[in-house]
Amino acid sequence: MASPVPQLSAQEAIIYLMVMASAVDGSINPSELMTIGRVVRSFPLFSKDHEDKLVEISEEAGALMGSDGGLHKVIHAAAEALPEHLAETAYAAVVDVVTADESLNPEEIRMLELIRDGLKISDDGAAAIEHAARARHMTMEAPL
């Protein structure tokens, strides 16, 4: 039996997207986990309750992702849950997570494209968010 697409809150939708984007390459590394926690603690749309339930929500996201067509179900559920004014906020959170390890692999790039399309993020909006994320993750070493 196929897993139904859950009805998510906007906050749960963003967590699902972050978890999905971080796991797309087969694992979630420590810097991505730390970034998900930082986003939930620091973005004003999240509450202490979301932080307390982060593991539970992440496990639910993983279960949906593992179902038949799971990636598309997560994107669809998130798009349904997010009001238009939070789409770029969600995309910014996802970009923060996938750039946390200072590299992007082809799977992560494709996932960003799918999320951007699913949330109807404009090319200009996506470019600005991605540029800002690169700037936030710069270190003292010059990029290659």
Fold topology:
Elements: H1 10-23, H2 30-42, H3 48-52, H4 54-65, H5 70-81, H6 87-98, H7 106-118, H8 123-136
Describe the protein.
By secondary structure, the chain is mainly alpha-helical. It has one domain (10-136): TerB-like, CATH 1.10.3680. 66% of the residues lie in helices and 0% in strands. It is built from eight helices and no strands. It has helices at 10-23, 30-42, 48-52, 54-65, 70-81, 87-98, 106-118, 123-136. α6 crosses α8 (123-136). The longest helix is centred in the first third of the chain and has 14 residues, at 10-23. It starts with 9 loop residues before the first helix and ends in an 8-residue tail after the last helix.
Helical content band? 55-70%
The total number of structural domains is 1
Gyration radius, in Å: 14 Å
Coarse morphology: globular
CATH topology: TerB-like
Number of strands: 0
Number of helices: 8
Q: What is the H-and-E element order?
A: HHHHHHHH
Q: Which structural class matches the secondary elements? A: mainly alpha
Low-confidence stretches: none
Q: Give the integer mean of the pLDDT values.
A: 90
- Under the CATH scheme, which architecture would be assigned? Orthogonal Bundle
Superfamily (CATH H level) name: TerB-like
Largest sheet: none
> CA-to-CA gap between the ends?
48 Å
- What fraction strand? under 5%
CATH class, please?
Answer: Mainly Alpha
